[in-house]
Amino acid sequence: MTGAEALRQGARRLAAAGVPGAADDARLLLAHILDVPRHRLTGALAAPLSSEMLRRFDAVIAARAERQPVSQILGRRAFWKHEFRVTRDTLDPRPETETLVEAALAEPFSSVLDLGTGTGAILISLLAERPGVRGTGTDISAKALEVAKENAYKINVSANFLESDWFMAITETFDLIVSNPPYIALDEMGDLVPEVQKWEPRQALTDEADGLTAYRAIAAGAPAHLSPGGRLMVEIGPTQGAAVAGLMRAAGLIDVRILPDLDGRDRVVCARNAP
């Protein structure tokens, strides 16, 4: 069987399973198996595939048909300017989170704390842009922290990683605190696509309540862990802007703003510690 024939069969199988973008996903997965860049795949399609290549391609198509995210199958996801290792223990970095990175980089900072770091994508992206900045990432998942450490090593940034429930293990203050916490309300979990609902770590998605539990803890603890005038920036769900902004004002933070993502949806709430 040639690569082209295998690709057609794989795409049909994914489409039958209800996978959105079946043809594109099949191309990505075949390029992965053949270890060629996606833009060079066409040149490899006329050649026959070995039985081992066919077996491996069948396995990844089967995984995708079960709605496992492509990033988990490949083991990596592009975010900002780098590729990050991802596993089932980490939330998949998403393009809309780059809104938070871009906004954080708009002002200088000499230290940054990333609460619930997951893959470390936010923290590592910031540190790669600001050599010499002191960075710390926390997570309650030891397995996620191992992934973050690997990503930091691969991207050649230095960071400290701590197992911590929000601020519990934090004793220092920072110029910048960032977070993409679990913000999906329990009653919204059933609406998620299978790729998220079945495959991503539940504790990184929902607080099993109203979706605001993490923001209450972060807003309450931020003033004591921010330098005077330091910034707090959190990603939110598109309907949570007013509620999260209210939590920050109630905690005594100032200059509270809600920033949109590229689709115009509320995506980041930022505030500043009192001088």
From TrEMBL:
**Record keyword Protein biosynthesis present:** no
What organism, scientifically named, is this protein from? Paracoccus kondratievae
User: What family name appears in the similarity comment?
Assistant: Belongs to the protein N5-glutamine methyltransferase family. PrmC subfamily.
- Its Enzyme Commission number(s) read 2.1.1.297
Annotated protein name in UniProt: Release factor glutamine methyltransferase
Keywords, in A-Z order: Methyltransferase, S-adenosyl-L-methionine, Transferase
Q: Which reaction does it catalyse?
A: L-glutaminyl-[peptide chain release factor] + S-adenosyl-L-methionine = N(5)-methyl-L-glutaminyl-[peptide chain release factor] + S-adenosyl-L-homocysteine + H(+)
User: Which residue numbers delimit the Release factor glutamine methyltransferase N-terminal domain?
Assistant: 5-75
- InterPro entries from the xrefs? DNA_methylase_N6_adenine_CS, HemK-like, N5-glutamine_MTase, PrmC_N, RF_methyltr_PrmC, SAM-dependent_MTases_sf, Small_mtfrase_dom
Q: Which stretches make up the Methyltransferase small domain?
A: 97-185
